[in-house]
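job 3f2a | input accepted
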Amino acid sequence: MRVGKDGRDMKQAVRSKNGGKAGKGGLRIGSIAAPRRVTFAELAYGQIRDAILTTQILPGTAVSENDLAAATGVSRTPIREAVHRLVEDRLLQVDPVLGTIVSLIDTARAEQAIFVRRVVEREVLSNKGQIGADELAELDAQIGEHEKAIRAGDEIAAARLDFDFHLLLMTVCGCAEAGVAIRAISGDITRIMYLSGADGDYFASVAADHRDLVDLLRKGDFAQALDLLDRHLGGFVVDQERLKGQSADYFVT
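job 3f2a | predicted structure (253 res):
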């Protein structure tokens, strides 16, 4: 059951982007084969989260454990754990009548998340003082993967790797828990970005900022690096009223 005017269910309310198509078997997120030391629940969580963040599964769509299990090829037990985590991320919500639905986008919450990220990420970086050669190499390698995904036209991977850079930056600065907190509040930002038409050019500009930031850190110019980070995070500007007018069903009113 779809929450909104058109009554679509999960099999219908899927954006056809980067292969995210609903076929005869319903939503196709991608079957999962777990590598060592990674649980099926962790992989299911990541794939379903990506599908929600990139609006392959649209806001307001009703989902079920059976649908998600069929889409990922994972049994219901790890799916249940993944759903629990996505509820904690505020990407899914449980309605007593409608069941589990993809949360609508809250623009006020997105604005607060941007504010929190600017404060937290800047503070974490400013407290680091110095970043070593090995840590810089990790950041360089991550940016390389991001650029590779952009060149391949894989916008889903590009969106994920964009955020992964910030998680890695928090980690090399010795504050991985800040990254965990930031991840939990950033879902609405990513969904707004996708609905507003983020494309390869957008992600290329993001990756260029990341590379410039690392170059400044390599030079030890923390003042300029902090300024760039603040502009980078604060540069997310969307005409929210226009977007709401185009996609009103997807937003909290």
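job 3f2a | The two ends are 20 Å apart (CA to CA).
job 3f2a | closed
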